[in-house]
Write a structure and sequence with these properties.
Layout lengths: L3 H7 L28 E4 L11 H19 L4 E5 L11 H16 L3 E5 L1
Parallel strand pairs: 1-2, 2-3
């Protein structure tokens, strides 16, 4: 969520965390202190980028790292908001990176992903 203060006001009983998924490194679990979680919702998306590798960082590596940490923190549900026509072999960088993320998340998570397209 871009505005974590607004999110916290809207959902005062839920933990709201700001996580920068546009990073070159994978965040170690010890540096991302997550409270006990029931679920994690990923709504991140960038439609275009002029920075090499940004789509991969934001749509694939970042969410995979976050979901891995969330599962370690006890999350039982992963909600991945994808995109219509997302597929690993899609013609656009946006759809292809979202499709690769969907595939990677569904194959790596030990919980049942909830897909919303």
């Amino acid at each position: 969520m871009r505005d974590t203060d607004a999110a916290q006001r809207r959902w005062p009983r839920l933990p709201v965390l700001a996580v920068d998924l546009d990073r070159d490194d994978v965040v170690p679990a010890s540096s991302l202190p997550l409270p006990p979680l029931d679920a994690v919702v990923n709504t991140v998306g960038i439609f275009r980028s002029n920075h090499p590798g940004q789509m991969t960082r934001v749509h694939e590596r970042g969410p995979l790292a976050l979901f891995g940490h969330a599962i370690q923190a006890g999350a039982r549900r992963i909600v991945q908001l994808s995109a219509l026509a997302a597929a690993p072999d899609a013609a656009t960088g946006f759809l292809a990176s979202k499709g690769r993320a969907d595939l990677a998340i569904s194959s790596r998570c030990r919980c049942a992903p909830t897909w919303r397209r």
